[in-house]
Design a protein that fits this description.
322 residues; two-stranded antiparallel ribbon; single chain; four-stranded antiparallel beta sheet
């Protein structure tokens, strides 16, 4: 028996007794606080295939149904493979969906106010689309409320920062407000003088970066960020309000989330297991309902920030982040 054959047989024997350990991947759905570990199998551009660790059940999930930003942070190896796959754009055969029991349907049920708030805090961090910079020209958005574009982009960055659970809202360095002549060029016509404002390089760069994030579907904003900025109020919170009134999808998503958890709080308060924290649950229910109503009124029909919006957002944040 030659050396090569002996080595091959040894490798086969070793593989039979020492099977390779499957790679683990953690998945989470949008709006669902449950995190489940699976054995990773494969993926393509639109789906990921996994196997339950407690059963011989193979499952297929669509990427669009999963919390992609969370998965990206917590599964670097799997995400690196996905990134390479998308870059190469290899045509792969889509995996057929299977009619099997879905473990995500078994969401961790809240048993009291504390556990319900925990689930709520997770859902508040689900990514939102943000304001479309294609459908909304920044100069038009800013001119509507006479806001300097530099201040708008500061608020834009504040919203991204506030959307991180541990993100701190540092005092922003005030942008220099241009005078009537600053940053503008004047042209004379027949008896008339027109002024054309010249955008700063910083504003142009900020918009380019934001456009890139929107195109790549980087969902850097969430309900937590919006609530934090709206609770700030004043000049600091106004850019977030200006963006929210121009994005129906985000507004409806926030309203649905708050209303959904308000119903959960009401239902849990009536159950025996929620009796001990019934008072807290009813307070949370009312706060969520009030905030959902206020957020629902942030539309193009209203040209001023309503006074109760700030207080309603503050109340919810106090109950959730206490």
């Amino acid at each position: 028996m030659n050396l090569v054959r002996r080595l091959l047989l040894a490798a086969l024997a070793l593989g039979a007794f020492c099977p390779a350990s499957a790679e683990t991947v953690q998945l989470r759905r949008n709006g669902n606080a449950t995190v489940i570990s699976f054995e990773y199998i494969t993926q393509d551009e639109t789906t990921i295939m996994v196997k339950r660790r407690d059963a011989d059940t193979v499952l297929t999930y669509r990427w669009e149904d999963l919390d992609v930003e969370w998965i990206k942070r917590n599964n670097p190896k799997v995400w690196a493979e996905r990134k390479l796959l998308l870059e190469q754009e290899k045509p792969t055969k889509k995996m057929a969906a299977q009619e099997v029991e879905d473990p995500f349907a078994q969401q961790t049920a809240a048993t009291d106010a504390k556990s319900l708030v925990k689930n709520l805090l997770v859902s508040l961090q689900d990514g939102l689309d943000g304001m479309s910079l294609t459908a909304n020209r920044i100069d038009v958005v800013c001119n509507e409320f006479q806001m300097d574009e530099g201040l708008f982009w500061l608020g834009f960055d504040d919203l991204k920062r506030a959307s991180r659970l541990n993100g701190k809202l540092e005092p922003s360095v005030p942008a220099e407000i241009p005078t009537d002549d600053a940053g503008a060029t004047k042209t004379k016509g027949k008896g008339k003088t027109s002024t054309k404002r010249v955008r700063s390089p910083e504003s142009v760069a900020a918009e380019a970066a934001a456009q890139k994030d929107f195109k790549e579907e980087v969902r850097a904003y969430n309900t937590l960020g919006y609530l934090r900025m709206l609770a700030e109020g004043g000049t600091k919170g106004k850019p977030a309000w200006m963006m929210l009134r121009r994005t129906t999808a985000d507004r409806e998503a926030i309203k649905a989330l708050l209303t959904g958890f308000a119903k959960q709080a009401e239902g849990l308060a009536e159950k025996p297991e929620g009796k001990a924290s019934k008072a807290d649950l009813l307070v949370l229910k009312k706060a969520l309902e009030n905030c959902a109503e206020s957020v629902g009124r942030v539309t193009r029909e209203f040209t001023a920030v309503e006074a109760r919006l700030q207080s309603d957002c503050r109340t919810v944040l106090t109950l959730v982040l206490h």
